[in-house]
Amino acid sequence: MSMGRPREFDADDALQTALELFWRKGYEGTSITDLTDGMGITKPSLYGTFGNKEELFRMALQRYEQNYMSFFWKALEQPSARVVALDVLHGFADAQTEECNPGGCLGINAAMGCSEAAEAIQKTIIERRQVAQKALARRFERAKREGDLPADSNPDDLARYLLTIAQGTAVQASSGAARDEIYRLIDIAMKSFPGSN
Fold first, then answer.
1. Phi, psi torsion values for 176, nearest 5 degrees
2. With 80 as the cut, is the pLDDT of residue 128 above it?
């Protein structure tokens, strides 16, 4: 029995390149040729290692969340709802405007250009966003129980509000807005957030 040819590329480096391409060009804007050229591999190597474009995107999205979005889960541990909100928004702004990264958010950039043909990708992105939104709402529910948020606060609406602001700043960042500009937007948005300053 003959063995297959050994892999002639670093799959980890190739995945990072794919992540950056998807982040910069979106899911549908990134062609298989873009991927194979950028990753320096052949189509059979792409399919043999990563499955298909959709699976490669899911792997890239998972890496993105691990490497660029870990701040989110740390922010939930902050002692007050207001600090949680600020850390979440500043964390998004920092990741979205880091000079060595493509601008904006991988999920937003990928979803904005998706047609019906990429419905599964949109669904994946929506599901991931809902996980984050539910975690944030649970944290705000706790803050409400502890008296850190007013009794009439709606934790679900506050979580949705923050993620809407984060998505808006992602669009701004992908259009070239600087970090200090986004921080100023965050300051304005936080004026509507309940709780102590």
1. 100, 5
2. yes
- The torsion angles phi and psi of 192, rounded to 5 degrees, stand at -90, -5
pLDDT at 112: 66
Tokens of 24: 């910069």
Quote the mean pLDDT of the chain.
89
Domain 11-191 belongs in CATH node 1.10.357.10: yes
* Residue ranges per structural domain of the chain: 11-191
pLDDT digits 0-9 by tens, 110-121: 766 666 667 888
